[in-house]
Design goal:
It is built from two helices and four strands, in the order βαββαβ. It has 69 residues and is α+β, with helices and mostly antiparallel strands. The chain has a single domain, classed as 2-Layer Sandwich (Alpha-Beta Plaits). It has a four-stranded antiparallel beta sheet, with helices on one face. Strand 2 and strand 3 (41-45) form a beta hairpin. It is globular and about 25 Å long.
């Protein structure tokens, strides 16, 4: 399963930090950002994906995050 999220992450160094935080809790998730996209895309791939947890993690870190429709 792949979920795509819209974020407000702007900097590459922030993406590395966010990925590290999420991977601590969900080590099997494949995670990447596309900051070139106007929606600052976060893609997460996993068989047991929990979108609400991803949103909660980013919100806790001070970023906005929502599932992209």
């Amino acid at each position: 399963m792949v979920e795509v999220f819209k974020t407000n992450v702007e900097k590459e160094k922030d993406t590395n930090f966010i990925i590290a935080i999420i991977k601590r809790q969900f080590p099997m998730y494949k995670i990447n950002f596309d900051l070139e996209d106007c929606d600052k895309i976060l893609r997460v791939e996993a068989s047991d994906l929990e979108p609400a947890s991803i949103i909660e993690y980013l919100n806790h870190l001070g970023y906005s995050c929502a599932v992209l429709d």
